[in-house]
Design a protein that fits this description.
The chain is of the alpha+beta class. It is built from 4 helices and 4 strands; from the N terminus they run ββαββααα. Strand 3 and strand 4 form a beta hairpin. The structure holds adenosine-5'-triphosphate and magnesium ion. The site of magnesium ion has 2 residues, from helix 1.
């Protein structure tokens, strides 16, 4: 099987008043097409930081300082934000672990999913195949 995602030597740091936290320290792994991959480790070991770094969702003060992330052979670290946005949703998505913090509890889940689809695939429209509007 081919590699779908290749992470090599990924380093991510948080600058904090008490110094630099090396949250991802030379992380390497690859996931093949069709493979289900689990990343396990104690709380605070850097799982979320690694996932956010791969998906370019890190916020200040986090910074990727080194490494390569390839999706289907395409090096992601060199892409502009616009180029990266084109891969989001269509090629790569993240489902965050805390649904109550990540889904708006006053909106229907269906509407939130539709918003995401329409944002990335405007031509998809809001109609189901049978013609019913969603
Ligand atoms: N904003 C921040 N400033 C400084 N250090 C941070 C910041 N955010 C996270 N860290 C540190 O980075 C390290 C990795 O955190 P991360 O959230 O990636 O861990 P995790 O493996 O996902 O943990 P959990 O299993 O609890 O979700 C931890 O030591 C954490 O304290
Ligand atoms: Mg986490």
């Amino acid at each position: 099987m081919e590699d779908l995602l290749e992470v090599q030597d990924l380093c991510i740091e948080y600058a904090s008043p008490r110094g630099v936290v090396k949250a991802a320290d030379h992380v390497s792994f690859s996931i093949r097409k069709g493979e289900i991959f689990g990343l396990a480790g104690e709380s605070g070991c850097g799982k979320s930081t690694t996932a956010f770094g791969i998906c370019r969702l890190l916020r200040h003060p986090a910074q990727v300082t080194k490494g390569s992330v390839k999706l289907d052979g395409i090096e992601l670290t060199g892409l502009s934000d616009e180029q990266f946005d084109r891969l989001r949703w269509s090629r790569m998505s993240i489902v965050l672990q805390s649904a109550m913090n990540n889904l708006n509890p006053v909106l229907r889940i269906r509407d939130q999913l539709v918003d995401a689809i329409v944002a990335h695939e405007p031509e998809a429209g809001r109609k189901l195949p049978g013609g019913q509007r969603i």
